[in-house]
Every structure is written in structure tokens, then in C-alpha cells.
């Protein structure tokens, strides 16, 4: 089934996917309707997020990505008015300018270059 998700900086090396933090878990919203996803993105933008783009994927691709990334996913049925939380995380796992959150020059990356290449390959396969 075709679903729509929200991406930030789509098509760049600093691409990010919108998630909701539920407890200690990240959840990707998969919208059945492009219009509903667009509406949700506009509400995010009104909360001072950068403007997301709405991208179509097969739900199986998103579910596979979630399994590989230890994320959850949730299907938002067509016509459901999904509303972003009133508050945003003060510090996100992703930064619009590409610098990691809490980055310092002394920190080592969480992933090796080969792991990053594999993740990049898998994400590009989603497109």
C-alpha cells in the first residue's frame, strides 16, 4: 500500500524523517492520504519546524526501515486529523544544518563509515 511520510531536506545527505517520540521510542507516521500528510506538515511548520516535504513510499519499505532502525510506525487512516504535539523536543536527534545534536569535536561517531554507507544505501533504496 502506498503511504506518505514527512521528510526534511529530502534528497540531500542531511535527509531526516519526521518521528514522534512516544516514551523512549520513535514512531514514524504513515499517512494514507497525501492531503492529510500535507496538512500535518503545515501544522509542524506553524510550530517553527522547517518545512517538510511529503514523500510517497510503499508501506512495506517504511516498515522495513523501521525494523532496521528500531523505530515504530503508525498508519494514519485517510480523513484522520492528526495533530502534532503542542510541544516539540527541545533537542532533536537530527539538526537541519547537518550537525549532530550534542556534537562536540571530541566525540566519536556512533556508526562506522561502512555502517553509514549501508544505512545510506538502504535509505536510497526507499526512494
From TrEMBL:
<dbReference type="InterPro" id="IPR021503">
    <property type="entry name" value="DUF3110"/>
</dbReference>
<dbReference type="Pfam" id="PF11360">
    <property type="entry name" value="DUF3110"/>
</dbReference>
<protein>
    <submittedName>
        <fullName>DUF3110 domain-containing protein</fullName>
    </submittedName>
</protein>
<feature type="region of interest" description="Disordered">
    <location>
        <begin position="82"/>
        <end position="116"/>
    </location>
</feature>
